[in-house]
């Protein structure tokens, strides 16, 4: 008979092996539930694609269901912790039966996002009703994006009090933002309601005190008036307000969001200048002010000390904007992406001279003239993409670079006034160029275009 220490040692070894190698399969109750779920999905799927519906989910008892498509198990307990439904084509938009998820008591991530031909348009549970998701006490991530859900699902969602991440991107919602309907989700850290047709007032947003990522892009929130309401959300790290037709000047109070890493205000109708308070956004890595209505003299000085800034995008739908290109400040940032098309630039802003780590540069649709700025290539050995189309450049000379640009792939110098001959060292300096858009005025362009196309 084994002694108590020997039994304990054996149990410890078994647990260790389980952690290292995983259990052979998920538990029987969950295997049965998975097969019931597949049967349900087959019942609402098109017959001609039935064989493509979760084909790895089989009734073979030797099959390890922890390795089935779309699943991940806890290596210690063998319980399913992640579930993703994959791509299935339904006969028509269908309801999802939440009661089929009840056996998965350790589920942490449920992904019902969709890119198939038909979508889920609602939830139901004939056992628990609106309280259904409360059964999944460990659920943290719920992704329902790219479906056809309406606001009718919110009574179900409000019961999922454990979730920290909720994505409802690109659904058929409309109406006011459903913040009151989510009042019980006090643990939310990420909320994505982008592209769902929302409008109406949003003062209650400040009550979601733990929010770090908020996606409200491509709705109809411009009717809300000033966006100062977002300034109260001090924990925000990422804020996406692009495509909402917001009007007026950028508020100074945005500079108080000192934890922001991403701020996307593109595709709105903002006017005026960049607030001086943006100099306080010391954590900022991504800033897009593209496709707005900026006019007059536009200063870039607030960016000077943003040491973490990696992506900066700016453009204006108005040709009355005048970007300050002569600033004497020396930037403390090293950008990877600098996109300033449609900025009425007559000179490349001085901060570009200090950039050594650029991957993508877009200076298209400006008023730049003279020589093609090949110094950008010399200063940035990691450069991959340079767009200079629709300017007034006249000369293209490729000075010998210290290093070849092995990562450089795309060059667009079309719609300029460049003539003459292509630099004979172009292929040597840019050995991996795969796309070049130029002009028939340039001798040799047709030949290199053909070579690149064949390549």
Automatic annotation (TrEMBL):
For whether the record's keyword set contains Transmembrane, the answer is: yes
The record's GO CC annotations read: plasma membrane
For this UniProt record, give its keywords in alphabetical order, as a comma-separated list.
Answer: Cell membrane, Glycoprotein, Leucine-rich repeat, Membrane, Receptor, Repeat, Signal, Transmembrane, Transmembrane helix
Domain Leucine-rich repeat-containing N-terminal plant-type, chain residue ranges per copy? 28-74
One Pfam match: LRR_1
Compartments reported by the entry: Cell membrane
Topology with regard to the membrane? Single-pass type I membrane protein
Q: Give the matching InterPro entries.
A: DNA_repair-toleration, Leu-rich_rpt, LRR_dom_sf, LRR_N_plant-typ
So which residues are the signal peptide here? 1-22
Q: Which family does it belong to?
A: Belongs to the RLP family.
Q: What is this protein called?
A: Receptor-like protein 14
